[in-house]
């Protein structure tokens, strides 16, 4: 247990620039306290001392604001940052080096006992603040879940999922090069999905204008239509408001 605690403290110092010393992390980080108490509760859970395990997790929730079911499985160097409002369900599995921010729910969508109801986060997953990951599926290694996303389907390794319901923006490389840490599930160079969609539509409109112009020119050259009949429409343009109109 103490080896895990040392790793937890080191992982906080690596991933949180606000952390200044090991003692500060040990005394002032509720995510560290929640994981420490969870490991104790999980030991009782594995020994079928269910009431004791649930009572320890209940005390941990009162002390830290983080609710972790004693049946959940955690890997090494997991970092729960801030942590208030985090909920982790019974059959959830969190891999090594995962990062979970405040308000995250790793929840279930089934009421049946004895089945996998909660998600599995593979190694290195970052779940942004307020995100909800609901169901017994897997979020692949190195994936990013954007803040306030609602994920109800599997996420490929190295991908970024945003929105409600969440959709995958782009898969990232999962080679041997370790990816940069992405706070709150976003990256510095990640494009806004709405902006990407609008640019794709604009590119499509301009390509259609180009093809129509070529077609009308060929029809006129072949003598199949006159100048008035084969007149191409005005090319698509974006009308930006003048500064004086604002």
Question: What can you tell me about this protein's structure?
Answer:
This protein has 246 residues and is an alpha/beta fold. It has 2 domains: 2-190, UDP N-Acetylglucosamine Acyltransferase, domain 1; 195-238. It contains 5 helices and 15 strands. Strands 3-6-9-12-14-15 form a 6-stranded mixed sheet. The chain has a 5-stranded parallel sheet with strand order 1-4-7-10-13. A hairpin with a 4-residue loop joins strand 14 (159-162) and strand 15 (167-171). Mean pLDDT is 84; it is low at 174-179.
Question: Which features would summarize this protein structure in a list?
Answer:
UDP N-Acetylglucosamine Acyltransferase, domain 1, 246 residues, alpha/beta, 15 strands, single chain
